[in-house]
Hints:
- The protein is mainly β.
- The protein has one domain (3-177): 3-methyladenine DNA Glycosylase, Chain A (Roll).
- It contains three helices and nine strands, in the order βααβββββαβββ.
- It has helices at residues 9-12, 16-23, 118-125, and strands at residues 3-6, 27-32, 35-47, 75-80, 84-91, 98-109, 141-146, 154-157, 174-177.
- It comes from Noviherbaspirillum cavernae.
- GO terms for molecular function: alkylbase DNA N-glycosylase activity; DNA binding.
- This is Putative 3-methyladenine DNA glycosylase.
- It is an enzyme of class 3 (hydrolase).
Amino acid sequence: MPFTRKLPRTFYARATEEVARGLLGMHLVHVCGGIERIGRIVEVEAYVGAHDLAAHSSKGITPRTRIMYGPPGHAYVYLIYGMHHCMNVVTEPAGNGCEVLLRALEPVVHLEGNTKGPALLCRAMGIDRRLNGHDLLSNDFYLAEPASMEPFGTMARPRIGVAYAKHWADKELRFYIDGNAFVSRR
């Protein structure tokens, strides 16, 4: 196995921006049909709560967003444009509506297809709405610290596709590993 341990609940129960930066370089693992698909997280976006006009939680608690207001360390998986899945990691204590969108993965083990974008990485990893609300401390879908990690630089830029979010559109809440070939957009 190319990792040392699953990330504990306390990892996710911190400030969203801190979790977002901390996820860079970690491994996303999904066991499908007995095969571990593993990707290294190279790009994320932070959504910092209901006051963040780009966050789904800005509309309040709905059947769709209820997961985001729950305990940290769970997956929020949703459908966009009626056809593409995206995955977020719920952060901070329950009730805050905070999450981190996974935007791009670098393939590590048994991961084929394009992973440069939130919908593409979900397709390659076999992630769909059946995993919405899934506890990321499970044995079949989780995030883990790699056994070793080379040092890397990070970049902060505005999030992608949130022009509707007024002043929130310009906040530098997208983080990625500088120079990584699997980042979706530089």
